[in-house]
Amino acid sequence: MGAGKRLPEVIIKDQIESTNHLAKRLLQEGFDGEAIIIAKAQTRGQGRFGRNWHSPEGGLYMSIILRGSELPANYALYGFALANAALKVIEEITDLSVHIKWPNDLLVSGRKLGGILSELVTENGNRFHVILGIGINVNTRIEEFPLELQSISTSLLHETAKQVDMDAIAAGIFNNLTDFLDKDPSLETVVSIYKRNCITLGSSVIVEDGNRKIQGKAIDVLDTGTLLLEDMNGVKMLVSVGDIIHLEEDV
Ligand code: BTN
Known about the structure:
By secondary structure, the protein is α+β, with helices and mostly antiparallel strands. It has helices spanning 19-28, 76-94, 147-150, 156-160, 166-182, 187-197, and strands at 9-16, 35-42, 60-67, 98-101, 105-108, 111-123, 127-136, 204-209, 212-221, 227-231, 236-239, 243-246. It has a 7-stranded mixed beta sheet, with helices on both faces. A 5-stranded antiparallel beta sheet has the order 11-10-9-8-12, with no helix packed on it. α2 (76-94) crosses α5 (166-182) and α2 crosses α6 (187-197). The two termini are 33 Å apart. It binds biotin.
């Protein structure tokens, strides 16, 4: 999965629509390097499944452009590598215990601290670049979140009652991720670290997959990034995309 040595361009904005949108635009306009884009606030932060990502000042909003060549066979695993890097850095800096909810939510005390949106951009259909967007509620005041998010979200400020150094988190995540990718890790390595961090494994969950709702136990994450579920009747099924809810008993 390695993409060579990186000397990224660092782009810092006070407020933009979305760091992932800017990353896409740069690539469409022919930008040919690697970049880290950070915004202090976003007006149209994008979450998974086209959802809005609430992005007030105080949060970290960062997109990393990784240049590739041919279609990465398991590009979902870049998201896993980023989640692993973010968890490690946040735990080192704050002493909090962070978990990953499949596929890429960062949780503290069962509440959402951050999320990852990875996108694949093609150049003329033959070269592919990965945009890895990460949003972390760092010094965000949860009381200022929309009411419906307040009970399910958290921030580092909320958990530690201290302002946390956002630059240290951003730099730590980028360095940790790129050092890891530069070693050209095997998929097995990425997934085995991920599995140690993933609280979904072994949990009872409900998967919302389009119109279907499936309840079962998450029994494995395959090397493709796919979740393996076993339902109440012992029937196993694969879930490659979807939203999951952890049932209360396990959280
Ligand atoms: C999720 O739905 O959990 C993913 C959220 C990803 C949000 C980040 S913030 C930085 C980057 N820019 C965006 O517009 N989205 C991602």
